Amino acid sequence: MTQANEQFYCGLPLAESEVRFRRGFVIGADRFLTPTYTISPFSSQHMCDETPTCSASGGVREWFEQRFPGRQAVPTTSGRAAIRLALLHLGVGQADVVTILTTTGNHYISGCVTSEIEKLCKWSRELSPASRVILVNHEFGHPYEAIERLRSHGLPIIEDCAHAFACELLPRLPAGGAGDYAVFSFPKFFPVQCGGMLVLPQRAHVGDVGEPPALIDHVASVVSGHLSHIADWVESRKRNAAVLAQLLAPLDCTQLLPINAGTVPGAFLFRLPPDVDSEALKTHFQGNGVEASVFYGQHAFFVPVHQYLREVDLRYFVALLEDFLATRSKAAAHESGGGVCSSSQSRPGAVGGATIQGKQDRGTQ
Ligand SMILES: Cc1ncc(COP(=O)(O)O)c(C=O)c1O
C-alpha cells in the first residue's frame, strides 16, 4: 500500500530507483540496461542461428508419436491452441464445466489457461456433478501423480504438460501418457518463440486444424534440431534448482516442492519469509529484468530455472531478493522514524486476480 508521503521516480519508490551495486551486480539500472531473464530459454541470441541448421520438419511429431504410442500428435502454434483443440474435439458446450486440478491443489493457474477455456465453456477448481472434463496441470514441471485415481469419475482427462515437457509420472510413464489428451507448449522448454502440440487419445484423429503451415514448420524445425539435447537440459534444470535452493536458504527461503525423479522444473518455486510483500517483490524482479512472479494462493514466488542459466544468473536472482529485503527494511526503518519511504503492506497468501498483468502472472481463483 502506498503511503501519501512515499516518493517515486520513474514509477519506482525512490529508494529502489537509485542504481546500486550488490554482490557484484548492478541493480536499479535504466530500464533499457537491465538484463533479460525469462521462464523460457528463448532469448534474442536464438533469433536466426537455429532454423537454417535444423533438420526438416517432422522430427518432433515423430518424437511425440514414439513417446505416446498409438496416439496422434497434432502441432499447434501454442499450448492455448492445443487446449482449444482438445476441448473442440471433446465437443464441449457453453454450459459444460472443465475442472482444473493442479499438483499443489493451490489456487494458482495461469490466466491464459482459464481464458482459453472461457472461450468455449466454464471452468471450476473443484470436481462436482457439473464437471464434464478434468484438466490436470503438472504445475511448473512437478507431476500430478494421482491421475489414475481420477478415472473413477468417468470423465475425459486433459493433461496440461505446458511446463512438463520431459517429466515422468512413473518410470517409463511420461507426463501426458496417463490422461486422454496432452497439451504441450514448446517455448517453456525449447528456445523457440511459440508452438505447441496436442496429443490425442488412441484411435482419435483430427485432420488439418488450420494452423499456419509456415509457422508450424518453422517451430517443428527448431524443436527437431534440439531433441538430442533433452537429457542434458533436464539435468541442467535440476542442477539449477539445486543451486537455487542452496543459495536461497540463508535468506530464509525454502523450496516449495521437492525435485523428485520425474520432476523437470519449469520454474523454481520457493516460500518467502513471512513479512515479505510478494507483490512488491514481483515489481522489483520484473523491474530488474527477471520474469518472476507470485505463486498466488501461497506465500511463495517463482523465478526462471531453465537450462541456459549459469550460476552467475542464479546469483543475480538471489542478489535481487537480498537487495529487496535490505531496501525494504531500510524503507521501513525510515518510515518508523518519519522518513520519506514506506514499506509496502504484505498480506501472506493473498490471491491475485484482475489487477495482475502478464501471461505468467495471472493467478486465477
Ligand atoms: C499451465 C499452462 N498451460 C498452458 C499454457 C499456454 O501455453 P502457450 O503460452 O504456449 O499458449 C500456459 C502458458 O503460460 C501455462 O502456464
Biggest sheet strand order reads 5-13-12-9-8-6-7
User: In whole angstroms, how far apart are the ends?
Assistant: 22 Å
Remind me, CATH topology of the largest domain? Aspartate Aminotransferase, domain 2
Label the structural class. Answer: alpha/beta
Beta-strand portion reads 15-25%
Write out the CATH superfamily name of the largest domain: Type I PLP-dependent aspartate aminotransferase-like (Major domain)
Count of individual helical segments: 9
Query: How many domains?
Result: 2
Q: Any low-confidence stretches, pLDDT <50, length ≥5? A: 1-5, 338-365
Task: Describe this protein's structure.
The protein has 2 domains: 8-43 and 231-336, Aspartate Aminotransferase, domain 1 (Alpha-Beta Complex); 51-228, Aspartate Aminotransferase, domain 2, CATH 3.40.640.10. It is of the alpha/beta class and 365 residues long. α3 (79-90) runs parallel beside α4. Helices cover 29% and strands 18% of the residues. A 7-stranded mixed beta sheet has the order 5-13-12-9-8-6-7, with helices on both faces. The chain has a 4-stranded antiparallel beta sheet with strand order 14-15-17-16, covered by helices on one side. It has helices spanning 14-17, 59-67, 79-90, 111-118, 147-150, 213-226, 230-248, 278-287, 311-336, and strands at residues 8-9, 12-13, 20-22, 25-27, 71-76, 97-102, 122-124, 131-137, 157-160, 168-170, 173-174, 181-185, 196-202, 254-255, 268-271, 293-295, 300-303. The chain is built from 9 helices and 17 strands. Pyridoxal-5'-phosphate binds at residues 78-80, 110, 112-113, 137, 160, 162-163, 185, 196, 359-360.
